Amino acid sequence: MYYINKSHYDRYIDLLEEYKAIDKEGNIDNKFGSILYILASSSYLVEDLKQYIKNDINFTMMGMSINNQDDLILIRIMEDLYNNTNFIGIPSIMELPETEFKVVMVAMNIKKFNYTLDSIKYTRPGGRPKKGHWGAIQDCKKKGATQERTASSLGISLSTVKRNWK
After folding, report:
1. Residue 20 Rama label (left phi>0; alpha psi -120 to 50; beta)
2. pTM
């Protein structure tokens, strides 16, 4: 299963447990699991939006608390997955940066298919860690993210972000 980094996986497992989206046999609730996967993809999304998940999910308030277009699209996709609606079209999904696009595709799989805790384990990618974060950092910069948020959402060090911020 695709995770942006180990932190994405850890946040996802924590959210699944916190919101009781796993049954006794380890099956993940398709509807809730799919939106928690998107939410877990970024630490600042969790920090900013978790407050709107109680007995029900307040997608309107989530949308009002976000000021960048890609994150707003992710919230609307979460709403579509949760409510079986179709507000976000394919062109909007196709405009997402590569990482967010991959996250959305996996979330759609979680919604459609039955996943268990055993089937979503994190496995470290083989080979050397990727270099060349410059493009992803510049995308975050264009969206108005701070350096700290960029580091957190990409799962890289703040010093790497600062070095590539120019």
Report:
1. left
2. 0.76
Residues 112 and 140 in one domain: no
148: containing domain: 134-164
- CA distances (Å), origin 59, targets 37, 73, 82, 111, 128: 16, 12, 10, 18, 39
Q: Which residues contact 136 (CB under 8 A, 6 or more apart)?
A: 97, 99, 154
128 part of a folded domain:
no
Q: What is the pLDDT of residues 66-111, one digit of tens each?
A: 888 889 999 999 999 999 998 888 999 999 989 999 999 999 999 9
Rounded to 5 degrees, what angle do the CA atoms 137, 11, 45 make?
A: 50
Separation CA 84–CA 70 (nearest Å) = 20
